[in-house]
Specification:
It is a single chain. The protein contains 16 helices and 11 strands. It has helices at 13-18, 35-52, 63-73, 83-87, 101-115, 133-147, 152-162, 169-175, 184-198, 203-225, 231-251, 263-266, 282-290, 330-337, 353-356, 383-386; strands at 2-5, 24-27, 56-59, 124-127, 257-260, 295-309, 318-322, 342-345, 359-362, 378-381, 389-396. Helix 6 runs antiparallel to helix 10 and helix 11 crosses helix 13. The protein is globular.
Length: 418
Amino acid sequence: MLVQRLGAPSDFDPLLARVRDARIVMIGEATHGTYDYYRLREQLTRRLIAEQGFDFVAVEGDWPDCDRVHRSVVCAPGGAADPQVALERFERWPTWMWSNAEVARFCHWLRAWNLERPEGQRAGFHGLDVYSLWESMQAIFDYLGEEDPASLEAAQEAYRCFEPYGKKVEEYGLASRFVSARCEEEVVRLLARTREQAAADGPDRFAAWQNAEVVAGAERYYRAMVGGGPESWNVRDIHMADTLDRLLDRYGPEARGVVWAHNTHVGDARATDMAADGMVNIGQLARERHGAESVALVGFGSYRGTVVAAPRWGSPAEAMVVPPAREGSVERRLHELLPERAVLVFGGPDQPDWVTRPIDHRAIGVVYDPSFESWGNYVPTRLGDRYDAFVWCDETTALHPLPALVSPGEMETYPAGV
């Protein structure tokens, strides 16, 4: 195991050497609301794009919202001149995950970087997630209305199937358990049509195809969600892994992508107790599909600090105190060994015992109650198997949300919240 203290972006050199041959680099976060994770992830990603030629960033966010950001950063016709304008249009709770000053800083840099490059060589910004059923449906309507009015009826049929439930898709999920309320057939027809059209070149056709994939994934997700168990989690992470693969295909045979998501998605589930519960995640799926040598998984963690989260589902975000990590955890051990920022690169014969055996590793979602720390928020983890590298911040601070539009709390990411 190699340990490098972090003080400047150049201190990521050992990690960059480790990921030099990777096609996919996934960079995690132990919370969705920590400034330090976002800032260090930005520094690492900028170097991956500028020095190693990575082609896009794909995040744990909705495709339609992120597509507005993408159009801004690649300077596409109709895209906002300021990426922050696109970020401030994020409406789904929790908006602060991507609508924050730290992501805005990165997107400003990415747009400036792209402006100096030909159109076909610009780095993109995309969403991997599955939640945006209604927004993706509307995007399909907008596209077909302009490009293929003859196919609009198929999309409208799919929409009419969901319409009786308004936008309360959890009601659709409940109804599908007891009556023949499933919209699966209409969605499958819509997906087949848009897949055929996507065979033709063009970013708008690809976006329409991806929105149709989201609609199909969302239908499966909301149906699985009401049944409990691991199925809805797996539907979501498989969708994200499939979207990543489509992006790699879209960008070309030599394409390389960076993924930003929570540690629970990025770190290989087989090295945690998630596997015993029948759960998979995008880190595991990427290793299985592309080979471990082509995938680098980077986790994050801290001992104490502050974080932006919400005390209840759908309630306003607030800055909360993250207490010192509990005894026996990864975070407590690293606090004792490395009371500074550092990056740990795993591998080799000299792995310490606490890296190879199961040990508690903290995970904080969008809903957080610090008083639960004594019995919750920890995932048993073999750190050296779960990640290829780990970024350590002994003390962290809360990120800075933008004044985004905030919609009422929805059931869509409940109860996982990561």
